[in-house]
Amino acid sequence: METLDQIGYGFAVALAPENLLFVFIGVLTGTIIGMLPGLGPMSAIALMIPIAFGMDPTTAIIMLAGVYYGAVFGGSTSSILLNAPGISGTVATAFDGYPMARQGKAGKALAIAAIASFTGGTVGVVLLMLIAPWLAKFAVSFGPADYFSLMVLGLTAVVSLGGKNLTKGLIAAVVGVIISLVGIDSQTATMRFTFGVPELFEGVQFLIVALGVFALAEVFAMLARRGTGGGDGTITSLRLNRREVGTLAPPTARGSLLGFFVGVLPGAGATIASFMAYSTEKRIARDGATFGSGNIKGVAAPESANNAAAVGSFVPLLTLGVPGSGTTAILLGALLVLGVQPGPLMLSDHPDVFWGVVASMYVGNLVLLVLNLPLIPLFAKVLKTPRAVLLPLVVVFCVIGVYGLSFTVFDLWLLLGFGVLGYVMRQNGFPAAPLILGLILGGLMEKSMRQALQISDGDWSTFVTSPFSAGLLVLAVLALAGPLLARLRRRPSAPSGAAPPEEGSGGDDGGSEDGPGGASGGARRSPAPAGEGHEAAEGR
């Protein structure tokens, strides 16, 4: 009963006219900034902090929290319409969202993203209200070895993100890990893969790689397809039929739960949550082979996960005073400047801030849904823009987003280089998703591994003596071994019923369907695999 009274008190605070106004301002600002490549939640909150200084602490934090999850919500729009992820947490949304947009289903993809985001945020708020203190204690018990094993488990997503050719997926993931190691080693001050170039001393920014291999590569691909036509300019209805609603409900629920619990772990965040939700759905779905070519479940799962993770990241921030990401670190600084010390005593010392922010998240998610659904037809009209106008606009967005990071021309050359790399990869059947995943997890894995080995005095057994770590490593091994064993079991039956020369041309990947977009796909018994591979390559 006490919890219900506290929740009621939180809604009374959040629904005060002034706080309600700033919830609206926060989520609207965050949504707009989240749509622009290069300006994610960190930039959005940093821009709004000067406005927050002269405000009441509760109102200020409610507004800044609205900016945060509004930016996560809005980042899906550019991912779906332009294949240019506004923030890293919406990269996985582009895998199926952009192919849907090219098929004339941009309105439906945006509607699914909006509903899944609302669901994920709502589930996250409910869990935050009910079990925040207990989850905070669990998050603290996670050590460096556990985090390393969690990253290893996340990296096994290359099995599903790599398409039908696991070898190419693994190669792309290794390239991503190598890119993550570029720069000065923070512990030994050793130069790694910098080639004496000062601009590489601080490493390669994630945004440069993401915009290059997705957005700029798509521009090159559209220019190459100049004579073959582009996406469908028509925009279908936003309505979801009963069958689609039933299809979307399970992945949205799973993504919401997974996203929240991953978000609770400091350092994990919305990006890892969205990738894990996407790869999980692709593994367990009966139609997993269609992921990457416009499957609606591939939009719902990551969108529900990244919004739930954004809410989950407030658990360690508010209950322990531990920021789990760069964005929540900025929020922590804002709280301290406003005279609020987050931590175990926050519930008793500042109940208005704690419960007001928690309740405002639910109100803000509702505002986001009501605000964005009517605007979807307007957003979707971006695809009707003539190609001669649209392509330069995409390039301008990419250039502005990258140049705004450090104001150096060198970053623009890097953007061009990764754009060419992304185009070459898709032309040769190498998926971009594992590269991005390797880039995201590479640095985190190295940091956690080093911390674990320092604590254990160099004893590698620390990764299997911790129950959490050992369990996660077992799951990672099973995640890799399962699909590999399934491929080996299918391999002997591949030659039956097909012409031997064409079956032999499939390489060493276990059958003729393994090469995405392969030249011989059209001559095979079923034309579907070649088409799927081509769409998957273009969608990524």
From TrEMBL:
Q: Name one Pfam family in it.
A: TctA
Protein keywords: Membrane, Transmembrane, Transmembrane helix
Record field: compositional bias (Low complexity)? 493-503, 522-531
Positions of transmembrane segments? 110-132, 138-159, 166-184, 204-224, 257-278, 320-341, 353-376, 388-416, 428-445, 465-486
Give positions of region: Disordered.
491-540
Q: Where is the composition biased (Gly residues)?
A: 507-521
Instruction: Indicate whether Flavoprotein appears among the record's keywords.
Output: no
In terms of superkingdom, the source organism counts as Bacteria
Q: Which residues form the DUF112 domain?
A: 20-437
What PANTHER family does the database record attribute to this sequence? TRICARBOXYLIC TRANSPORT PROTEIN (PTHR35342:SF5)
The protein's name is Tripartite tricarboxylate transporter permease
